[in-house]
């Protein structure tokens, strides 16, 4: 094993220097360390944090690739018109032209996300003299998938620095953070650069550019770059078929559009026990319940068509899972074990409220008709409280047992 | 309070190298060792000097905090060496055995005719007291207490554990004498647990409540059984004794001799022919393992793979152990170990690990941690292998930030480090759970007592 010896020689040289942390990170990528058990039990199971994290990234890869094709597809569809009656494997979607446009836009986002984020992680690990932890492995993949495709790279850089430092490192790094780091990054972008994060221009690549060219006097047609939710919030009719929405041939953040791939990813995460099925199931239930309540309000005639909430409220309850980022948020963001509730009972409550509040915010917030990010961040803040009451239940049971004895 | 105990949460770690039911006499060890560290939280005071002769059962040292609590020599012979560490702390006491064994005669006793005080002083004087441990804190029982119940687990569910049905066969009289004696010491009853489908020699005893246990490990841990039968509340004390120590107590009562003989298992994938050996407490490891080990870099453990202590050929069988396990060391690097499909290791997830496909496969695991130490990240996986009504991650964190109130509220009085051996095994963050719990218990013992 040439590589093993070579790495071992380098290790001997860098140990004790500032390069130790960085080298350690690279070394453990190639080789699981030779560390043996030295306290307690003498055996350990095969899973480590790297393995868990890589199993979250795995189902994100098809979603990333789909996102590339979709970016190109939306761009061309906005210019040339939307093809009707597409199946999942339609050549109108899966062609090199679409991929080229998408890859040109998306790969820089992925690269910037990892380089900046891992750079900060390594920097903090070096000054704190601990090992580089794996958390950013997932965050770095999530971030490009939850932002509009035309997000400028400098903006992304600023947001990542904020998100990783304020969202995670000041609390002590992976495992210590209160808010989901990827959503912290997105929330920063949303509040710092709202014009780039919402509206009817940002969701299709080229739309903003085209608008600027038209403003400068060019004789071109404008590209509409609106999400379904944005359109519905304006009171417009739903312009896409259910199968388009399910397969993901719709505008939106890069990774959120294909409910099909997200569903498959969710099943993989549940099957491998990497994500909590309790959170995923209860979030879906929560979203459906809120959707049903709104549908019921419409059916009961408590709200008229002139209301600005009417279109979104009357959207069939189950369609909320197909549009916007709800499905993606539930499967990949709500299930982050660090920021979610940590008790099994708490996970049911936490997940239900995420689904419930997501749909609520989505309907009542026409300026930015999406609620998943805010709902998850809100529940991140409340998850320790939920856990507290769940654990108190256990404590009370114990006290009761004692009282029953002494009484 | 049900008679039978059935648990679902847990994990059987199936390993290669279970001991075959054949017993050999271990080559007689010339030097026997007592280590005060086997008796947690005890500060020893020596009562014998180097060069002096002792008989089997004669006190070698006693507890500084309670001078009645005596620790006997397992053999008759000459005290040849005392190994000391920092601040002259006694690490080991070595006794060279005589060829002709002499026993101190403590006199035959009939436990039925004795009262609690007589029994206590008899057990203390004869050095059998340290076999009785207590919860809370998982230390040697305080003789001043009267426990609400005494628990004996005769069902060994730990990986490769010595089969109690086999090693205790034919010891019914000793066991009965000891159980009768213990039943005098508690205000409640003595709870004896046996495997559901076993023909345990403990199954037919009187003066105790019998429970049949089934389910994966840790169903055989006495902590699991306490939790299911009669959990420890604040202010309450229960005692626990292992069955092989009951035999020694029983023999003391029946014959007046302290006989430290014990049938132990030599098991694990590092052993050429795993089987049982008849030996004595404190016997040197080499007297048992010599000629029985596979080539290669092995780790010798006194105890089982989940709770035992690392030792080596120069070491000795620890005071409470009835198994020596030998497994390969795993001090090598593994290429892309974090992402390659795993077939030859156990995992409770299915994250490109495939042990779930082969539920009955036996594994040859080594001591590699399979990853680096991290902060707690993954949640919910401890609960799958932890049958107690306690939140494992929360209580571990409470121990780490030393919040005594929270530790108490979350159930610290009910647990021992061994209850956290499986959560430690499955821990993705490779946290030292048993060490955390032990330190937490020590802190409580010091602060609350």
UniProtKB/TrEMBL annotation, chain A:
Its cofactor is FMN. GO terms for cellular component: plasma membrane. The chain crosses the membrane at residues 52-71, 106-125, 145-166, 178-196, 246-270, 277-297, 317-335, 347-365, 371-391. InterPro entries: NqrB, NqrB/RnfD. It catalyses: a ubiquinone + n Na(+)(in) + NADH + H(+) = a ubiquinol + n Na(+)(out) + NAD(+). The modification FMN phosphoryl threonine is found at residue 227. The keyword Protein transport does not apply. The keyword Phosphoprotein applies. It is found in: Cell membrane. It holds the Pfam family NQR2_RnfD_RnfE. Its EC number is 7.2.1.1. It is a multi-pass membrane protein. One of its GO terms (biological process) is respiratory electron transport chain. One of its GO terms (molecular function) is FMN binding. Its main location: membrane. Keywords: Cell inner membrane, Cell membrane, Flavoprotein, FMN, Ion transport, Membrane, NAD, Phosphoprotein, Sodium, Sodium transport, Translocase, Transmembrane, Transmembrane helix, Transport, Ubiquinone. It comes from the Bacteria. Belongs to the NqrB/RnfD family. Composed of six subunits; NqrA, NqrB, NqrC, NqrD, NqrE and NqrF. NQR complex catalyzes the reduction of ubiquinone-1 to ubiquinol by two successive reactions, coupled with the transport of Na(+) ions from the cytoplasm to the periplasm. NqrA to NqrE are probably involved in the second step, the conversion of ubisemiquinone to ubiquinol. This is Na(+)-translocating NADH-quinone reductase subunit B. It comes from Lutibacter oceani. The gene is nqrB.
TrEMBL record, chain B:
InterPro entries: NqrA, NQRA_2nd, NqrA_C_domain, NQRA_N. Its EC number is 7.2.1.1. GO terms for molecular function: oxidoreductase activity, acting on NAD(P)H, quinone or similar compound as acceptor. Keywords: Ion transport, NAD, Sodium, Sodium transport, Translocase, Transport, Ubiquinone. It catalyses: a ubiquinone + n Na(+)(in) + NADH + H(+) = a ubiquinol + n Na(+)(out) + NAD(+). PANTHER family: NA(+)-TRANSLOCATING NADH-QUINONE REDUCTASE SUBUNIT A. Composed of six subunits; NqrA, NqrB, NqrC, NqrD, NqrE and NqrF. This is Na(+)-translocating NADH-quinone reductase subunit A. The lineage of its organism: Bacteria, Pseudomonadati, Bacteroidota, Flavobacteriia, Flavobacteriales. The gene is nqrA.
């Amino acid at each position: 094993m040439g590589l093993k010896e070579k790495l071992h020689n380098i290790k001997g040289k860098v140990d004790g220097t500032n390069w130790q942390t960085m080298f350690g990170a690279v070394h453990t990528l190639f080789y699981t360390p030779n560390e043996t058990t030295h306290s307690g039990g003498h055996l350990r199971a095969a899973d480590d944090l790297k393995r868990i994290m890589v199993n979250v990234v795995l189902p994100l890869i098809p979603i990333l690739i789909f996102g590339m094709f979709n970016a190109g597809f939306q761009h061309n569809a906005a210019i040339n018109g939307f093809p009707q009656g597409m199946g999942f494997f339609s050549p109108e979607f899966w062609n090199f032209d679409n991929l080229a446009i998408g890859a040109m836009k998306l790969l820089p986002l992925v690269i910037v996300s990892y380089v900046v984020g891992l750079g900060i992680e390594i920097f903090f690990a070096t000054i704190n003299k601990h090992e580089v932890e794996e958390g950013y492995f997932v965050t770095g993949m999530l971030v490009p998938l939850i932002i509009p495709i035309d997000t400028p790279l400098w903006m992304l850089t600023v947001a990542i620095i904020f998100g990783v430092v304020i969202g995670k490192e000041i609390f002590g790094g992976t495992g210590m953070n209160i808010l989901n780091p990827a959503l912290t990054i997105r929330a920063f972008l949303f509040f710092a650069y709202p014009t780039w994060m919402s509206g009817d221009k940002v969701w299709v690549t080229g739309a903003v550019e085209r608008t600027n060219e038209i403003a400068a006097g060019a004789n071109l047609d404008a590209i509409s770059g609106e999400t379904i939710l944005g359109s519905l919030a304006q009171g417009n009719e739903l312009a896409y078929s259910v199968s388009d929405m399910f397969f993901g041939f719709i505008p939106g953040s890069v990774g959120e559009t294909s409910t099909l791939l997200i569903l498959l990813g969710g099943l993989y995460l549940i099957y491998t026990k990497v994500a909590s099925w309790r959170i995923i199931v209860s979030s879906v239930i929560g979203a459906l319940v809120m959707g049903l309540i709104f549908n019921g309000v419409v059916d009961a005639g408590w709200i008229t068509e002139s209301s600005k909430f009417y279109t979104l409220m009357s959207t069939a309850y189950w369609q909320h899972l197909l549009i916007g980022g709800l499905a993606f948020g539930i499967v990949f963001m709500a299930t982050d074990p660090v920021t979610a509730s940590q008790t099994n009972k708490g996970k049911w409550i936490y997940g239900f409220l995420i689904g419930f509040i997501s749909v609520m915010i989505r309907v009542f917030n026409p300026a930015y008709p999406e609620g998943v990010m805010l709902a998850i961040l809100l529940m991140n803040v409340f998850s320790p409280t939920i856990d507290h009451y769940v654990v108190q239940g256990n404590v009370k049971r114990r006290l009761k047992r004692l009282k029953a004895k002494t009484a | 309070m049900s008679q039978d105990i059935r648990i679902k949460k847990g994990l059987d770690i199936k390993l290669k190298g279970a001991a075959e039911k054949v017993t050999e006499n271990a080559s007689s060890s010339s030097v026997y060792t007592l280590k005060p560290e086997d008796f947690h939280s005890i500060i020893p005071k020596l009562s014998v000097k180097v060069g002096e002769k002792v008989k089997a059962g004669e006190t070698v040292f006693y507890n500084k905090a309670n001078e009645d609590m005596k620790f006997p020599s397992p053999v008759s012979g000459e005290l040849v060496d005392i190994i000391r560490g920092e601040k002259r702390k006694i690490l080991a006491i070595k006794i060279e055995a005589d060829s002709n064994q002499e026993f101190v005669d403590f006199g035959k006793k009939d436990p039925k005719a004795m009262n609690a005080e007589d029994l206590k002083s008899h057990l203390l004087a004869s050095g059998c007291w340290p076999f009785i441990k207590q919860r809370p804190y998982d230390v040697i029982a305080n003789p001043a207490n009267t426990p609400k119940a005494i628990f004996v687990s005769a069902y060994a569910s730990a990986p490769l554990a010595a089969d109690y049905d086999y090693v205790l066969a034919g010891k019914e009289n000793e066991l009965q004498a000891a159980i009768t004696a213990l039943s005098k010491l508690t205000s409640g009853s003595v709870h004896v647990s046996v495997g559901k489908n076993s023909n345990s020699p403990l199954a037919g005893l009187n003066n105790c409540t019998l429970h049949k246990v089934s389910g994966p490990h840790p169903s055989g841990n006495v902590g699991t059984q306490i939790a299911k039968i009669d959990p420890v509340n604040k202010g309450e004390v229960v005692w626990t004794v292992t069955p092989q120590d009951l035999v020694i107590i029983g023999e003391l009562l029946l014959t007046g001799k302290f006989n430290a003989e014990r049938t132990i298992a030599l098991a694990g994938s590092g052993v050429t022919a795993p089987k049982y050996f008849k030996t004595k407490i404190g016997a040197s490891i080499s007297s048992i393992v010599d000629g029985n080990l596979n080539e290669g870099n092995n780790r010798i453990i006194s105890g089982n793979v989940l709770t035992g202590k690392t030792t080596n050929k120069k070491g000795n069988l620890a005071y409470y152990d009835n198994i020596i396990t030998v497994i390969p060391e795993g001090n090598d690097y593994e290429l892309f170990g974090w992402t390659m499909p795993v077939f030859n290791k156990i995992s409770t997830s299915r994250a490109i690990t495939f042990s779930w496909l082969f539920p009955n496969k036996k594994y040859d695991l080594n001591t590699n941690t399979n990853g680096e130490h991290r902060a707690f990240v993954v949640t919910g996986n401890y609960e799958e292998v932890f049958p107690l009504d306690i939140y494992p991650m929360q209580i571990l964190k409470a121990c780490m930030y030393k919040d005594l109130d929270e530790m108490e509220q979350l159930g610290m009085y009910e647990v021992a480090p061994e209850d956290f051996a499986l959560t430690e095994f499955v821990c993705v963050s490779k946290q030292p759970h048993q060490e955390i719990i032990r330190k937490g218990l020590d802190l409580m013992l010091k602060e609350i007592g």
